[in-house]
Amino acid sequence: MATSNIDQQDTMASVNDSIIEEEENEESSMTLVEHLEELRWRIFKSLIAITVAAIVAFIFRIQIMRFLTLPLPKTADTLTKGQLVVTGVGEGFTIYLKLAFAVGFVIALPVILYQTWAFISPGLYEREKKNAVPFIIAGIVLFIAGIALGFVVLQYPVQWLINFASDSFVPLITADNYFTFVAFFLLAFGIAFEIPLVLTFLAQLGLVSSQVLRRKRPIAYVGMWIAATFVTPGADPYSPIILGIAMTFLYELTIVFIRITKH
Predict the structure, then answer these.
(1) What is the pTM assigned to this prediction?
(2) What is the C-alpha radius of gyration for the chain, rounded to an integer number of angstroms?
(3) Using CA atoms, how far apart are residues 131 and 153, in angstroms rounded to an integer?
(4) Domains of the chain, residue spans
């Protein structure tokens, strides 16, 4: 008799939870037009944040450029004494503009993620909202950490590639070529550092588990080290080693994250 009462209480509790979730969805339900209007304003606010941050970055463009060119060796070009080269009348202005918007996007990333969260949060259950906020914060921290490590490592592929054929050629490093290289290199590190977030999210969906990750550890290690070799654009030995070590550490950190979040 006591067992049946407990079962009835569990059933009533699950029914109440379902009713609460349905009420949350009904309260947050919007028409298609209202969704599009909300999306428009969220995108507009994100663009405003990027523009404001880009204007600030453009004001400090000289300092930003000097900082980003620190990995460039002074012997990169015997003709220009290590300075970057532009090949068009307006290319200098265009480079500064691209640089300002790229830096502005990184600065405005918290605002962009918040606007994304504010748009999708009305359609989430309460338990999903509690998990989403730590995911967003962790994503920002990991991405910035990846970019920071990438910038520290950047000097090795830059110096190796420039000095590789310096005896046969006189390198003229254009600003567009250099900053494109830097952008892809830092982006590779930033994306690689999102591995724990992606795998933890898949674990929340039930697609992977900490047991599976431990069992597949040898295969994952081989795949990550091969990926580290191809993702880093330089041919120096340091970049893939550092990225491979970082990805290995993040893989192990993911197993810990999953075990914590699944309980």
Answers:
(1) 0.70
(2) 24
(3) 33
(4) 40-261
